[in-house]
Amino acid sequence: MKRACILFTITTVCILAGVVCHAQNANDTTGRKWWKEAVVYQIYPRSFKDNNGDGIGDLKGIISKLDYIKSLGIDVVWLNPIYSSPNDDNGYDVSDYRNIMKDFGTMDDFDALLKGMHARGIKLVMDLVVNHSSDEHEWFKQSRSSRNNPYREYYHWWNAEQGTPPYRYSLFDVNHDAWRYDSLTNAYYLHYFSRKQPDLNWENPRVRNEVHGIMKFWADKGIDGFRLDAFQFAAKDTTFPAFPRGFEKNFTQYYAMQGNLHGYLQEMNREVLSKYNVMSVAEGAGNTFEDAHNLVDANRNELNMAYAFEGADIAKPEGYSLLHLKQVFTKWDSAFASKGWLSVFLANHDQARLVSRYGNDKPEFRAVSSKMLTTFLMTMRGTPYYYNGDELGMTNAGFTTIDDYRDVQTLNEYQRQKNIGGDLPKYLQRIAFESRDNGRTPFQWNGDKNAGFTTGTPWIKVNSNYKTINAAQQEKDRNSTLNYFRRVVKLRKDNLALVYGKYTLLDAQNPDAYIYTRELDGKKLLIMLNFRDKPVDTQTGIDVSKANVLIGNYEHPSKDGKLLPYEAVVYELK
Ligand code: GLC
Ligand code: CA
């Protein structure tokens, strides 16, 4: 009798477990994973903290700030490239994938950094830049040296006897021509980015094998993940068909997800990713939801997540429509509601500053709008990627002359405008709003010289507002954007509903406020965000007068559905 009972119990548990397992498979979005529950903090090493006074941030500088990083409550650091590089594109042109850029330090520094992070329970994700290498990489030196060199097929060459190659658009080149003629072998090589960033030939199994070796090298050191830079462009149709005139206006349609890209990722997963406890994220998610799903659906064994640009490309100098932003984020959420996983972000090292683009950087609204945007990023489904300095509400650089800029893309486009007789003052205005350098000015640690970033001359100017916007001052202020960031990160960590919960848009047609609920296992949170510099009314049909306020960016959060300028509130509904 007793036995039968035990048997019965076991069977029941198994059946129940089966149901649970089945339920998880049916919705793989809500299947728990550490990388879904993580908050990722992105560090741009060149601008974070300089330790030796040469004006360039370095690994020892990051090590000296590990306690600060830990204090944010984040789980994962994504570090922009730190490999050897001639720095044509600030490290996105790698000349040796197994070494550290001299400006940044040594491999011993790297080992110490990784150890220091792990000791604090922080994981490290590294950039993997393998759509292209530097032209100073040994592979390319060999490849260009002769047509018969064993490394020739590591890159894409077009022999001049065949005539001029079919036009390809380069994102960074001063002429936007992605083929560069090399007289040494009378041939052209392909570079989607700058001429110092030749594209690798992924059709060559030796190239893929090299990349797997590089990934294993870093994974064996114990890193926790890879961010695949520009990888959606890696595979090409190497017959190089002619593209229609004007294709460059929509070049991702022709560049992204071509050829055997998915095959290469499945092979990478088999050979490397599946063998380590690492996360993987692709920059770019193709052109359609189908592309994006094909990258990240768990049963395909490619990558864990991807970040799509649509949401982060909405802000324009003339402003943007909140209805559009809501529509884009809602659409992406619903496409991934039961399968796959995405990242959530509005800023990174390729964008101008979060508060200057999506919020309001005027002194009276800067802090409050920056907190509102942080609340948004931390309450959406998907893994949030948060860019260093945004927790202080750092703003655009305020550069007025081209001499202040350092970015290859910004500078080459300026040169191009000059060459074609373009409107230079207008261009300067545009880059003041959108140049990548806006997000790359030194981190503002304190009110001392150079914002405490360096004792030397910084490689790029410090924002002149560092005396009012800096970490030291914000540490002292309970209500600073920095301390708000810590609280809202903690809120996300304490509420699985914010990670996995169902997202429902409310008051959808409200042009000024973004309102949604997140629901999981009977817990329901309501998030209300005012994107305007004036009070706005909302219509949710929910009485919040008795709801529990979990966080808000005003001392007395709204209890009647009216939101103050840039107000953000998260309620728990009964
Ligand atoms: C990615 C990087 C960007 C870089 C480009 C070329 O878009 O995020 O910073 O310039 O790839 O590597
Ligand atoms: Ca330095």
Automatic annotation (TrEMBL):
The keyword Manganese does not apply. SMART domains: Aamy. Gene3D superfamilies: Glycosidases, Golgi alpha-mannosidase II, Oligo-1,6-glucosidase, Domain 2. CDD domains: AmyAc_SI_OligoGlu_DGase (cd11333). InterPro entries: GH, GH13_cat_dom, Glyco_hydro_b, O16G_dom_2. The keyword Cytoplasm does not apply. One of its GO terms (biological process) is oligosaccharide catabolic process. Its EC number is 3.2.1.93. It holds the Pfam family Alpha-amylase. Residues 1-23 form the signal peptide. GO terms for molecular function: alpha,alpha-phosphotrehalase activity; alpha-amylase activity. It is an enzyme of class 3 (hydrolase). It comes from the Bacteria. Belongs to the glycosyl hydrolase 13 family. This is Alpha,alpha-phosphotrehalase. It comes from Mucilaginibacter celer. The lineage of its organism: Bacteria, Pseudomonadati, Bacteroidota, Sphingobacteriia, Sphingobacteriales.
